[in-house]
Amino acid sequence: MKALHNFIENNIKPTFDEGGKLEKLYPAYDALYTFLFVPAHANHHGVHVRDGIDLKRTMVTVILALVPCLLFGIWNTGHQHFLALGQTAEFWDKVLFGALKVMPIVVVSYTVGLGVEFAMAVIKKSQVEEGFLVSGMLIPLCLPADIPLWMVAVATIFAVLIGKEVFGGTGMNVLNPALTARAFLFFAYPTYMSGDTVWHADEAFSGSVDAVTGATALGDAAAKMPVDQIGAKYDMMASFIGTIPGSVGETSVVACLIGAFILLLTGIGSWRIMASMVLGGYTMGLIFNFFAVNPLMQIDALHHLLIGGFAFGCVFMATDPVSAAQTNTGKYIYGFLCGFLGIMIRVFNPAYPEGIMLAILFMNVMAPMVDHYVVQANINRRLKRLNTVNA
């Protein structure tokens, strides 16, 4: 590595330094250099926060937490494919098929997203921000495996430019970029994001799977399928393990829990948001179980937490440290409302059976207000105590 470092310093870096032929592209060089080596930058002013983990290492940790969802999503894509065809297949056959479907989505997401990031860094003459390292993985995992690659590219560009850069870049965005990409596709190309035909990677075998439903559990419930049939088709254990149709990385609660353990162990994820979101979703589910006037209301409250993107959103989307609430009390309120509203949307509006996405985006917008009132309440309590003492 030392030889590589010396080669870069002596032969490549001068080309990008001030006065070099590629001076304007220095941000792109700097991003690649700091990816390989620890940055050589030094602070010119005193720092008040010191931490052994910088933003890039934090993002890498989140990506590691996402790996179980990615690996299971690859296998499940192949599993659902062969299941739809009525064929039996070996483990590695499913993995191979799934990889051929999922990995191109990941490659397109990272290639397009990082390309936009590099271009924006050159235009702004600033360092390339590492925030997209996680978004580049989240975007493929919250999409169907059969999504056209050009749509992935368009949604990624929209997420980076509109979801992040217009607000000032990483750390300034109001909305979660990955959910922004999914929302863009959901409203711009709804037939590719919902319905009975998008959850199996079977376009090459469409004639063979016409008689096979491709709906998710929520899609079947929204179509008025009786709750006993839903329970039989998507039982608790299958929903927990993840062997059901859905977006690439969202079906397995087990994989999400492994990711949650990694995030909580490293102190990157917020247990307050995760726990309160589960409580909020379960509370809303119990309320609906009490009335139970349609199939979606009749779904067991616990089952609501196991299907759709609830677990994935709870662990990886709602806990985004930028777009989530920042105060401890605010995190409880924010998380509870994410879960509460998520179940409410999926039940009240069958057109949006996956309400977690909309609930989290709505609470992203509300998070600053939640923090404001939490801080203001603390100020008012302290003023009241101070006035009492002075009296």
Describe the structure.
- This protein has 391 residues and is mainly α.
- Helices cover 65% and strands 0% of the residues.
- Helix 6 packs across helix 7.
Order of helices and strands: HHHHHHHHHHHHHHHHH
What's the story with the biggest beta sheet? none
**What overall form do the CA principal axes indicate?**
globular
Low-confidence stretches: 203-214
Structural class: mainly alpha
Give helix % range: 55-70%
Blueprint of the fold:
Blueprint: H1 2-16, H2 26-36, H3 55-85, H4 91-124, H5 132-141, H6 149-161, H7 177-188, H8 217-222, H9 227-233, H10 236-241, H11 253-265, H12 271-291, H13 295-298, H14 301-306, H15 310-317, H16 328-348, H17 355-390
Helix pairs in contact: 2-4, 3-4, 3-5, 3-11, 4-5, 4-6, 5-7, 6-7, 7-17, 11-15, 12-16, 16-17
What keywords describe this structure?
single chain; mainly alpha; 2 domains; 17 helices; 65% helix; 0% strand
Task: Give a brief description.
The chain has 391 residues and is mainly alpha-helical. The chain has 17 helices and no strands. The protein folds into 2 domains: 2-36, no CATH class; 57-204 and 213-376.
